[in-house]
Amino acid sequence: MTFSQLSAKKVSWSIGDTRIVDNISHAFRAGAVTGLLGPNGSGKSSLVRLLSGLNSPASGLVELDGRSIGSLGSRQRARTMAVMDQHHGTSQPTSVRQAVALGRIPHRSLLGGEHVVDRQIVGSVLSALDLTDFADRDLDTLSGGERQRVHIARALVQQPRVLLVDEPTNHLDIKAQFDILAILRQVATQAGSDNFSGTEAPTVVVALHDLNLAARYCDQLILLCEGRVVAAGKVQEVLTPANIRKVYGVDAAVMSHPVTGEFMVALAPLTHSAQTDQAHPVSQQRAATRGSEAAHSASVPAR
Ligand SMILES: Nc1ncnc2c1ncn2[C@@H]1O[C@H](COP(=O)(O)OP(=O)(O)O)[C@@H](O)[C@H]1O
Ligand SMILES: [Mg+2]
To answer: In this structure, which of 38, 192, 279, 301 has its CB flanked by the most CB atoms within 10 Å?
Structure first.
């Protein structure tokens, strides 16, 4: 198995005078899922678009294996990277199989049609994602979770080295959210197995809102606020009560899940005392005590 390296190097992007992505540097791990977290408007989608080459940085570079992705042609980029963005409209009635097969287009010769190998890859990805029974259904007749699986399938038949996914779990029920993240995790960690096509462990980057989904399924996290990286690293280093409070403006306690023992975060609106910490040393002390309680309860197994 080979590993590619996606890196952002001092990447910035502005609209007018407003800095939307501000000097972000990060080396994304192949064979792992990196979660992008941050409140609405913190720059997650903008960063995804920069990583994918859809937008070009105003300064800085996005590199894959030491080569600027700006230097890749669109076809070469589509052979290398797959992007699932927040808004994928279905313009016309399409069967699930047709929708997934679109992902093979970058691999076809310019005038060539679908080859046996394309059909084989589509078939095996449909099967790995439990979509075989839906193959001839119209995409519009699927549930939200099923449709997201189709979008992932289309991305996977591209056999990308980098898979960028923007908020794939919005509007999905809880089980579908788990299912989608579990698939992304399998994609990152089981490349070359019978289930997933492609022999290289891809780099998977996923923008998420739900901190507990991120904690459960991501290997690395990047926490963004106003276009900057506030924290990056392992789940437990990033999802600290202090970071969560700073970025989201809510109270957080970290603990072990009572059943699974996994790291989890319990959230609550800032209490009145916490909101007035600065002005009231007593409430500051109370908040500090709460913080240490949370720290005590955070003895959870590391990944
Ligand atoms: N094309 C655009 N035109 C104007 N503003 C934009 C555009 N794209 C993003 N923004 C602004 O950039 C900020 C970050 O947006 P975005 O990257 O979508 O954040 P997130 O995905 O974290 O919600 C927001 O304030 C948003 O309004
Ligand atoms: Mg977004």
So the answer is: 38
Best residue for ligand 1 mutational test, from 46, 51, 205 (most atoms within 8 Å of Cβ): 46
User: What are the pLDDT digits (tens) for 144-163?
Assistant: 989 999 999 999 999 999 99
Q: Which CATH number is 6-234's, of 2.60.120.200, 3.40.190.10, 3.40.50.300, 3.40.50.10240?
A: 3.40.50.300
Rounded distance, CA 152 to CA 270, Å? 37
The count of other CB atoms within 10 Å of the CB of residue 232 is: 18
Q: Output the residue whose Cα is nearest ligand 1's atom 8.
A: 46
Domain boundaries, the chain: 6-234, 240-303
pTM, rounded to two decimals = 0.86
Q: How far is CA 49 from CA 37, 52, 68, 102, 211, in A?
A: 15, 5, 15, 20, 22
Which residues in 236-262 are b (16+ Cβ under 10 Å) and which e?
Answer: bebbbbebbbebbebbbbbbeeeeeee
Query: Which tops the pLDDT comparison, 91 or 58?
Result: 58
Q: Are the C-beta atoms of residues 56 and 70 closer than 8 Å to each other?
A: yes
pLDDT score of 91:
63
CA of 260 to the centre of ligand 2 (A): 30
Query: Of all protein residues, whose CA lies closest to atom 26 belonging to ligand 1?
Result: 41
Nearest Cα residue to atom 18 of ligand 1: 45
Q: Which atom of ligand 1 is nearest to the CA of 39?
A: 22
192 confidence band (pLDDT: 50, 70, 90): low
